[in-house]
Structures are given as structure tokens and as C-alpha cells.
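Hey, can you fold this one?
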Amino acid sequence: MSTNINFSCDKLVGCENFPIWYITISDYLKSFKLNLYIETDVTSTIANSVNNDTDHNTKNDHETNDAKASNIILTNVIDKIKYYIKDCATAYEKMGKLKSLYEVDKATFCGMWIIYHNV
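Sure. Predicted structure:
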């Protein structure tokens, strides 16, 4: 039985929507069993341990899945943000760069929310 997943997500525009964007993208990747590619540096680990044909097939599978995860990230950020992650080779590197640019601690986020909503 196949399940179709309808996906709708606002594109990442900056730190103001990063927390919600991140959990949305993470869960979407998880639904395709691709979340591993933003949580760990899978492709580098596999590249360092290729010894036989089976390992080459595994490496190719991981590279394909990493490309899928990267594509999901790239299609869900605005063009300005793509400039910052264009040189990242893997989904893990892309997400790491986005976190370094836009992830803020909870206290800062709450402060931004209060200012934004004039509370």
C-alpha cells in the first residue's frame, strides 16, 4: 500500500521562520527516511569505508538519498539563502550552514516573537 504525502511548507526566509521551517522539513525528510542525511554526515562516512562492490552500491544509494535530501532543502529556501549554501556538498553541510546562520536560542526566539507581536 502506497501513501501519498501532500507537502506544503513556507520557504525559509531567515531566523524569523527557521524554527517552524526546520521541524517541517525534518519531519518531511523523516517521512521518506531521509532525515539521517541532515542529522549525520553519512556520505563522508560511507566514502571513507568503500572496499568492495557491495560498498559501492551502498555508496551510490547514499549519494542518491543525499541528493534527494539536498533537493528538498534547496527547493524550500528563498533564492537569497541558496547563495549561502551553494558550495555545501551534502544535505548535512547545507543544514549545518543554515543552522549556523538562522538558528537562535529559545530565549532570543521568544524575545523576537514578543517584539514581532507587540506583546
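The mean pLDDT is 83. Let me know if you want another pass with a different chain boundary.
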